[in-house]
Write a structure and sequence with these properties.
With 245 residues, this protein is mostly beta strands. The chain has 2 domains: 123 residues, Elongation Factor Tu (Ef-tu), domain 3; 116 residues, Sandwich (Jelly Rolls). Helix content is 7%, strand content 44%. The protein is built from 2 helices and 17 strands. The strands form 4 sheets. Strands 1, 2, 3, 6, 7, 8, 9 and 10 form an 8-stranded antiparallel beta sheet that branches. A hairpin with an 8-residue loop joins strand 4 and strand 5. The longest helix has 12 residues.
């Protein structure tokens, strides 16, 4: 049965709700237009501090309860206790690769004989999100670059490329099973070059970590290199939370 998931709980399976319709509100830009006396039009400061930002968007979802008339109140109470006022992850069956995050308001129950209708309204972030995961592994011959050494000849790098297919820049996080270093890799006709992004201190193991100033533009592909501190196998997982309107 087509529906919507709230924090992994499907509207039909968990709450006996039949989805009638839903609407996704616009992501309205936060514009900043300043009128100056003696100047035609207005000065546009919308992107003065960076890219365009957007206001929250509204998702409205209209459901019918499948419960019989004797179970309507109990089903409605269960729905309110689970969702009303809570910030949740929302996944539409029509767009399962992406998710929204927002705070849900459960509307009043409108009983009609043995059925009842209810509208859920979610005030969401302007973007919908998708998490992309990429794993790179090197077995048995990676040696870390060493403290204070940027281009040690003992370094053996493993590489992985990540493409941001979303509509906005996205910040990657890195998680290795050992402490490790990360490079930004550039390949060109004359060969390739690796620039260490965290040359002053290795990233810790077992933790999703972002590197200050590192992001992948919308539609771009970035290749990274990795080397562990010391010898042995190294596995690094790269996560990228893509955003799209």
């Amino acid at each position: 049965m087509k529906g919507i998931k709230f924090d992994g709980n499907h509207s039909y399976d968990a709450y006996q709700l039949f989805l009638n319709s839903y609407s996704i509100g616009e992501a309205e830009p936060n514009t900043n237009l300043v009128e100056i006396p003696g100047v035609d039009g207005a000065v546009d400061f919308t992107e003065y501090f960076g890219g365009v930002t957007y206001k929250s968007r509204i998702l409205k979802m209209q459901f019918t309860f499948i419960a019989d008339r004797f179970g309507l109140n109990a089903a409605y109470a269960k729905l309110q206790n689970a969702l009303n006022g809570r910030r949740v992850k929302i996944v539409l069956d029509d767009d399962r690769e992406y998710f929204y995050t927002g705070r849900v308001s459960v509307g009043a129950l409108s009983p009609d004989g043995q059925i009842g209708e209810v509208t859920l309204t979610a005030t969401c972030d302007p973007y919908k999100y998708k998490t992309k995961v990429r794993t790179a592994t090197c077995y048995g011959h990676t040696v870390g670059k060493g403290v204070g050494t940027v281009d040690s000849p003992t370094v053996t790098l493993i590489h992985a490329s990540v493409t941001n297919t979303g509509g906005a820049p996205a910040v990657p996080t890195f998680n290795g099973d050992k402490a490790f270093y990360v490079t930004a890799t550039e390949r060109h006709a004359g060969g390739s070059s690796d620039t260490f992004l965290n040359e002053s201190e290795s990233l810790p193991s077992g933790k999703d970590t972002a590197i200050s100033g590192v992001e992948i533009p919308a539609g771009a592909t970035q290749e990274f290199g990795f080397c562990c501190v010391g010898e042995g196998d190294l596995t690094v997982t790269i996560k990228l939370q893509e955003r799209s309107l």
